[in-house]
Amino acid sequence: MIGTLINAIAIIIGTAVGLLARKGISERLRDTVVQGQGLCVMLIGLSGALKTQNTLCVILCIVIGGLLGSAVDIELRLNQLGGMLERRFASDKQEGSIAKGFVTASLVFCVGAMAIVGAMDSGLRGDHSTLIAKAILDGVFSVFFAGSLGVGVGLSAVAVFVYQGLIALLAGWLEPLLTEAVITEMSAVGGLLITGIGLNMIYDEKHIPVGNMLPAIFLPMAYLPISGLF
Hints:
By secondary structure, the protein is mainly α.
């Protein structure tokens, strides 16, 4: 858990720096930065999505995951959580900015091989080097994200701590499930969702309900073993 804790603290520190740096920046300049970050987020997402070795797996996971997420309306619940937090943070006026910052940062920081492999190494072997390297990267990203998306980015530290912490704690049980192929496809599905986040950052008027597709990230753990039987 040490590596995960360092990762979460790095995000909080990066967010604090970003919030301080955003003061004095005009709204027009901030909008430009958001658009640029949206393009960078799309690049991160596409680079992960294109590593897939099983396109059908990605397609089915996105479709089924979207159906499952829409059934419970995860997107709505995330927005409700963001609205509740919005009322507590009077300094962040833009409606939905906390939810947007939280979802955007959480996806970027949680999805990917480094989060999964790093947490597994931390839990199984006590090797925190991968998560410490990831902490540095996430800390830098959180500075820029917080500068444009606000305090919600800092809340993603909770998601990172819970997600990576659970993987580390359950590493012994998860190791047979999280094969290299499964991790590759989970990263690919997550990369596609990150691409959707990037599009949302650029085109506010055409919103993709990425929150409702979150269950798709975990479906390769079921799809690949089942498909291997046929």
